[in-house]
Amino acid sequence: MTTRFPALHLISSPGKIAAFVGRLCCLVTTLLLAGCSTYGPERPGEKIYRDVLFAAPGGHKLRMDLYVPRTAKPAPVVLWIFGGCWRYGSKGYHVNVRDLTTAGIAVASIEYRMSSEAVYPAQLEDCHAAAQWLRDNGARYGIDASRMGASGESSGGQLAAMLGITEGKSRIRAVCALYPVTDLIELGRIYEKRKVGLRLIEKLLGGPVEQHLQLAGDASPVFHLKPSLPPFLILHGQHDKVIPVEHSEGFFRALEAARIESQLIVVPDKGHWFRLNNEQFAEVSRFFQVHLAR
To answer: What is the pTM assigned to this prediction?
Structure first.
């Protein structure tokens, strides 16, 4: 089904990379380092549990923040994965799906190891660990983790997509990816041509892309699509100069070809790293409400 908003260009089923990528990442780093200042108080009708330890790979402690609606029955949950080039970030900054609690859906904003600490797939392994921890312990916090979705932005969108792909529809019911990385090999080629951003991918892979093509392919959602996967909702800014919108358009076509339920919303007035407005959030909320229902 196709839904259209005045501020959105929506594509439903039937690039340019600017040299300011490095400067943008520096800006993101500055903002993320101030992540604690983004923590807000509990809102009426919800409970927040901060810094819940869920794993400690190699002694590296990983924690999550739980935003849980006060509902009569355990709430479904969306696992949120922050972006930041796999190198920077904070579970407390820019939680773009934070308001899902108003729709009766819990949000688990997680940490994962940065590329400076471990190469891929360590980051995905940490996401799996968080998902399993929620299944084992979520009920103690008012969460029904049998109804779990995944969401993330930018590099976090890549991890959310890969989590849905590797766990399958029976465990991750729906994935919402915001301006995600979907093809590391192609993105690496673009960054190499533009002479900017390539080191971020190389840091994740542990070396040059051409020397780690198998790993880059393993980390690219576009190469792992099959009909048994969960539905996808993708949002991408039309003027994104960090991750070209063409990547999400190609990913959407691949989802269609694999007969996976999918929807792509291209936001005409946005670049990279934007907050959801009311209309966009309503679409995300509806998506998860439908797919996380009993």
So the answer is: 0.89
